[in-house]
Design a protein that fits this description.
The chain has 470 residues and is of the alpha+beta class. 23% of the residues lie in helices and 15% in strands.
């Protein structure tokens, strides 16, 4: 996916980030003190959000609502609201759960409301954080997923939108524009890239940006907020948008979206071309065969990506031991570990329990992880993935009991070098083993992200590839 970017890009903005796309998710079970009592969760990493939370608190109190604030670490808020202990799901703040949270959430460019709103997707192993349990909603979201005709599926989506507007336990504000600033003296194609890739549907990969003519060494700053690493660098263990801005550059998927306008899907780790991709579906519309691109090396030089890596990735996200917040979604769509089988070293078969209209867009875009480093059999048990240095980026001494004590490794355009806790900077460098073209021009150029609130950086050599501009 660039994960869950593709299937479920959301940005957590607790307490109030802007007045644009902010659904309010109330838990109305709270004991009423005045009209009622509500606790606002506020991330400590961002002074601006803390200021906004005071405005929100004051406004609610003016209405006779007993509103209080809790300033917590960003990860703590994520844990409390989105991945709580199962015993705390649906509980109020006073009971160990949450009352209200402000989030930015999108169904992405290929809208699939199933993972956010079907009753099978309740947190903590799913993304139905509102715990919406509605029979008609379940029927419509299931029909949307299994309807392969585009016109019929869009009609079902429109019906679902009416239902969600009337019944969904959230208030959603739609916005259609954003402001992105870039320096044209450094980046030559900013208008093109930020026009084709835009939040909240998709954020452009670093390797989309092209240096201006004559520029060979540069620093590019993209302002964001929030800590990274927070939950970590394994996509299936982190529901933090901020982590995804780092790990999205490290990994590759079987398929990748080319743009958010024409919605072209490119073979990435899958073999083939746009015109003839390395995936196909049988006449039953449930059996998918994917051929893997040969000779793709991992960033540590190990060759090559194969069917074992793919199967382990999809087995892991469906395994209860690692505790993925996406487990319920993948399990429903794929149907279990036995439904992903190795045909040969470069071929994988997915035998779905029923057709899924967004299989390429939402399943084949899942980041593929390295079996040779993460194998639960002989390297890192599933139970240790979360605390592994591969996920945390911590020093090897913090995970010395594990067979692999290094940081994250993928096949993406940039490699993880390290994290500096003093400057709060993630350092990435260009992956010269990348299987798509990286022209010599730009090899020494640097791109750095700076996040407002906490300064979180990515230092990466910026290439000048045209690989996604087919």
């Amino acid at each position: 996916m660039n994960i869950p970017k593709k299937i479920r890009l959301y940005i957590l903005v607790l307490s109030l980030l802007t007045l644009t796309s902010i659904p309010l998710l109330p838990n109305l079970g709270h004991a009423q003190t005045t009209i009622f009592k509500i606790t606002l969760l506020v991330p400590s990493s961002n002074p601006a959000r803390q200021s906004w939370s005071l405005v929100v608190q004051s406004s609610l109190q003016a209405l006779g609502i007993d509103a209080e604030r809790q300033v917590l670490a960003f990860g703590t808020v994520l844990d409390r609201a989105f991945t709580p202990d199962p015993s705390l799901v649906g509980k109020t703040w006073d009971q160990g759960g949450y009352d209200a949270v402000f989030i930015g959430q999108t169904l992405s460019i290929d809208p699939d409301p199933f993972m956010f709103y079907h009753s099978s997707q309740f947190a903590p192993t799913g993304s139905n954080y509102e715990l919406w349990n509605n029979t008609l909603n379940d029927q419509l979201t299931s029909q949307i997923d299994t309807t392969l005709d585009d016109a019929a599926r869009i009609n079902l989506l429109k019906q679902w939108q009416v239902l969600a507007y009337d019944e969904q336990p959230a208030v959603t504000i739609l916005y259609t524009n954003e402001t992105v600033a870039w320096n044209p003296n450094i980046v030559s194609n900013g208008a093109q890239v930020f026009g084709a890739y835009h939040f909240p549907a998709d954020w452009p990969p670093i390797d989309q940006l092209t240096l201006a003519t004559g520029v060979t060494n540069a620093t590019i700053a993209l302002a964001q907020t929030g800590p990274a690493p927070d939950k970590g660098y394994i996509p299936y263990l982190s529901d933090s948008y901020y982590d995804s801005t780092v790990y999205a550059q490290l990994y590759s998927s079987l398929a990748q979206r080319n743009d958010t306008i024409f919605r072209t899907m490119l073979p990435q780790l899958a073999d083939g071309t746009v015109q003839s991709p390395g995936w196909s579906v049988a006449s039953d519309n449930k059996t998918w065969t994917v051929h893997i691109r040969p000779n793709i090396k991992w960033q540590d030089g190990i060759c090559c990506v194969n069917a074992t890596d793919v199967k382990m990735t999809f087995d892991a996200v469906q395994d209860s031991t690692i505790g993925s917040y996406l487990k319920s979604f993948y399990t429903v769509i794929i149907g279990g570990k036995n439904n992903v089988t190795i045909v040969d070293p470069l071929t994988v078969k997915f035998s779905l329990p029923k057709p899924y209209a967004y299989f390429v867009q939402n399943i084949l875009t899942s980041p593929i992880l390295p079996w040779h480093l993460l194998s639960p059999v002989w390297s890192i048990p599933y139970a240790s993935w979360k605390s592994s240095c591969f996920n945390t980026g911590q020093a090897a001494s913090s995970c010395s009991s594990l067979r692999y004590t290094g940081g994250p490794v993928g096949t993406g355009p940039y490699m993880w070098v390290g994290y500096n806790p003093t400057s709060q900077t993630n350092h990435l460098t260009r992956n010269d083993l990348y299987y798509f073209d990286f022209p010599v021009n730009g090899k020494t150029a640097l791109q750095t992200y700076y996040w407002s609130g906490q300064r979180i950086g990515l230092s990466v050599p910026l290439g000048n590839p045209a690989r996604l501009h087919h």
